Amino acid sequence: VGTDVGIFRSGDGAQTFDLHLAASLTVGNHLMPGLLAELGRRHPGSHIHLSVKNTEHVIADLLAYRIDLGFVEGPVQDERVQRFFWCDDRLAVFVAPDHPWAGKSVRIDELRAASWVLREKGSGTREVFDRALANANIVPNVAFELEQPEAIRQSVQAGLGVGCLPLLELRGAFHAGWLAPVETPFLNLERRIQIVMHRQKHLSPGIRAILSLCGVAGV
């Protein structure tokens, strides 16, 4: 059984915590910095340890009590895991700006013929992508599987295939014009970003502080 996080008092009387967190790549790179900055302002002196890895590894750490909370994008089925909704997100299909599909809508048969540059199996992004294509009766031709979103963006820009990543990972590239979105109205690429916790984990003040900051009520 995991141990509870430490609880301390700063010199001004504010509660401080020692927390171990893990987040999947998109959440860790784009959403966690703002969350942790606000937590630090409210609880100065807290010690927060954050690791960033894919969803499968976050859940493994959670079940082994190596972390107190996880922040993930993909579906979580394990009954030992309690899930709290945080916010919505969606994936986007994208290509190089000189690709014939750039800024256009494509057909299902075109996606069937495409070569894809994707996240690895076990990532939340890949799980949502695979489910969306299966529901549209598309078996993707996967040319490359890469662990880092930046490597995928660069590969697609170089013309190695069609990519699919969270919109959070793509807004800057779309705005700058070095990648272009592709419209795929027949694919359901919506997803929910969740906070996950082991059902046997004690709801310490530190965990409650983060859940409250994320808008999770009634815990």
What is the element layout, followed by pairings?
Blueprint: E1 6-9, E2 15-23, H1 25-30, H2 32-42, E3 47-52, H3 55-63, E4 69-72, E5 81-95, H4 108-113, E6 115-119, H5 124-135, E7 141-146, H6 149-157, E8 162-166, H7 171-176, E9 180-182, E10 190-198, H8 205-213
Parallel strand pairs: 2-3, 2-4, 6-7, 6-8
Antiparallel strand pairs: 1-2, 4-10, 5-8, 5-9, 5-10
Please characterize this protein's 3D structure.
The protein has eight helices and ten strands. Strands 1, 2, 3, 4, 5, 6, 7, 8, 9 and 10 form a ten-stranded mixed sheet that branches. It has about 220 residues and is an alpha/beta fold. Mean pLDDT is about 90; it is low at about 1-10.
Defining key terms:
alpha/beta, ten-stranded mixed beta sheet, 8 helices, disordered N terminus
- Could you tell me the mean pLDDT? 90
Percent strand equals: 25-35%
Order of helices and strands: EEHHEHEEHEHEHEHEEH
Compute the CA-based radius of gyration.
Answer: 19 Å
What is the 3D shape? elongated
What is the count of β-strands? 10
How can the largest sheet be summarized? 10 strands, mixed
- Decide which structural class fits the backbone: alpha/beta
Number of helices: 8
What is the CA-CA span between the terminal residues?
20 Å
- State the helical fraction: 25-40%
Unreliable stretches, pLDDT < 50, 5 or more residues? 1-12
